[in-house]
Amino acid sequence: MNKFPEYFTIWHIAGHYALRLMAYLVLAFLILPILVIIPLSFNAEPFFTFTPGMLSLDPDAYSLRWYNEIVTDQKWTLAIRNSFIIGIAAALLATVLGTIAAVGLSSPWMPFKRLITALLLSPMIVPLIIIAAGMFFFYTTFGLVGTFPGLIIAHAALGVPFVIITVTATLTGFDRSLFSAGLSLGASPVKVFWDVVIPLIRPGVISGGLFAFVTSFDEVVLVLFLAGPEQRTIPRQMFSGLREQINPTILAVATLLVALSIALLVTLEFLRRRSERLRGAE
Amino acid sequence: MAGSARDQRRLAPEDARNAAREIRAQRVRAFLFVTPLLVFIGFAFVAPIASMLFRSAYNPTVAELVPASLEALAEWDGEGQPSEAVLTQFAVDMKRLANDRTSGQLAEEINRNLPGTSSVVKSTARNLRRVEDAELASNGAALLLEANDAWGEPGIWRALRKAGKTYTTGYYLTALDLEMTRDGSIQQRDTQIYLKLYGKTLWMALIITLLTLVLGYPLAFHMAHSSTSRANFLMVFVLLPFWTSLLVRTTSWIALLQTNGVVNSALIALGLTRQPHEMLYTQFSTVIAMTHILLPFMVLPLYSVMRGIDPSFMRAALSMGSRPIPAFLRIYLPMSLPGLSAGALLVFIISVGYYITPALVGGTDGQMISNIIAFHMQQSNNWELAAALGSLLLFLIVALYWLYDRFIGAGNIKLG
């Protein structure tokens, strides 16, 4: 037992293992609920539970019928299309505006920096139900309720804080004299921004955009208040499914969404490493 | 700024002016970069919130529906039956509302101030709809009393006058379970609805925060003091739930906790219980599901702080004979406090305003304040009360956010 220092008593060692056991139990608590829906989504019966056939690994108890339901049911195909339209448009809007603003915010000369940063990050903190109620009152006067532009604007506002956070984080490693160098050589601020700043902060911009996309893709409260039947998204469809008639189609959709988040996690990790490499190369 | 001022003192006046101009130009340039987003957020986010705050104290519905009656009623002293002129004017207004099909709105608004009067207003409107204008003008008061004798009582008129105020603190009073008595003093209502709900919401948020802390602390500790490759591997298990859709995670808890769900089946199969337990649609299921959903928000800030704590401090204390628990309490815990407070405040702020999970797994006793706001928005159509309840919730959150910004710094929120 030379793994532990000599002054460790048996109780120290017991405590060490108890802590480790606790950590693994918590990890199990985090991950198991998500994994459990994957086998359930292949259920041949319209239940949310493991049938005896599934437990004895009878191949007939498993089927792809709920996945088939997703691609054939018009409600789900519409929802998938809407989620991507709204998510991509909102992410683009949030990323463009947020990136430009982050450049200004990370300038040492920025006036009212603390106040403005707190304001721009506040959509992340204000409860969605309050945002939803306010937007419903306000957007009605502009005819934006029940339209795609209304939802895109609303979701873009939610995505902005994430873009600000990731891009300012990348900009802390950014050498500002490059900007001045570009200006002193006669380029316009816009050209310097486009040709010098953007290539260097690209990983941060892309991960900010991904955050904004996921925020929109996962959002349901604003959709509940602002969307008409034409703008139903995947989470909205799942919400009404869970409230009205629970069937394993929801589990099949959920499984696909888990696969999507795994893909996203891998992409973000890749971007993070790339960003570290870029900064290390400077 | 102090540094730049000192630098300027060494410069010639001409150069100092140029430098100051350059700094001003830099400030303007930095601000110009932020302007487009400020305009966007102003329209898309700040203005909606402001409109909600405004609506919580502004309700022109009744004032727009029956302006003439309210004007006549202003003279009334609040005792006994109002004058014949008021009754006649109101009868004329009621006929117009009945024909415009807006009498329902009036009924709803008066009913909020005096429950049970909705049917009085509606039936009166139905009765007066077909009466000739000339007859109403000459005999309106009698016809109104004939349609429903409640119009002879002062109560309903007081309710009308109260509902007719364009600017009102009434919704805030309702949201705080208070009411204004006739002499203008404020007293508590007999039944406490909203204060109780605020209390329950804060209580549940506190429980959830403590649970995430109890679960998250050992996990973050273990990860922070593992090797980098192992920590990165374990981090996947924290980040995957973090990145997985909220609806997916709520769905899993429905599958796990329902009467014939995975947990109950497992308990029965293991012989621990015979009858399935009703776990879904309770406060219990809301707390469990929200703890699961918010746990990463606790683990991530804790981990990033603990990663920076030098383990040799603890080793030094233990090697010099300190017992583990006092050593932890005096040395490690204070050093991990920034991460702990960041995580706790974040989890608390998010859970106070939670809507989706309580709505889906909460049943009746797991509802939180957000759910009652949604109820007043969507079902009872009492938007002003929803706005007042929302504004109070907003003040609460802003106060917490201010604390967060003051002690931790809003710009220090880390993602992943």
Description:
The complex is a heterodimer of chains A (282) and B (416). Chain A has 282 residues and is mainly α. Chain A folds into 2 domains: 10-61, no CATH class; 74-246, MetI-like fold. Chain A is built from 12 helices and no strands. Chain A has helices at 10-40, 52-55, 65-72, 74-105, 113-121, 128-141, 148-171, 177-184, 189-218, 221-226, 234-243, 249-281. In chain A, helix 3 (65-72) packs across helix 12 and helix 8 (177-184) crosses helix 9 (189-218). Chain A is globular, with a radius of gyration of 24 Å. The model of chain A has no long low-confidence stretch (mean pLDDT 89). Chain B has 416 residues and is mainly alpha-helical. Chain B folds into 3 domains: 2-55; 63-168, no CATH class; 195-412, Orthogonal Bundle (MetI-like fold). Chain B is built from 20 helices and 2 strands. Chain B has helices at 2-9, 13-55, 61-65, 67-73, 84-100, 103-113, 118-128, 133-147, 154-163, 170-175, 194-224, 228-243, 246-257, 262-269, 283-306, 312-319, 324-352, 356-361, 369-378, 383-407; strands at residues 178-180, 186-188. In chain B, strand 1 and strand 2 form a beta hairpin. In chain B, helix 2 (13-55) runs antiparallel to helix 20 and helix 12 packs antiparallel against helix 15 (283-306). The model of chain B has no long low-confidence stretch (mean pLDDT 87). At the A-B interface, helix 1, helix 4, helix 5, helix 6 and helix 7 of A face helix 2, helix 11, helix 12, helix 13 and helix 15 of B. Chain A: The chain crosses the membrane at residues 21-42, 84-103, 115-139, 151-174, 210-229, 249-271. Chain A: Pfam families: BPD_transp_1. Chain A: It is a multi-pass membrane protein. Chain A: Keywords: Cell inner membrane, Cell membrane, Membrane, Transmembrane, Transmembrane helix, Transport. Chain A: It is found in: Cell inner membrane; Cell membrane. Chain B: Its main location: membrane.
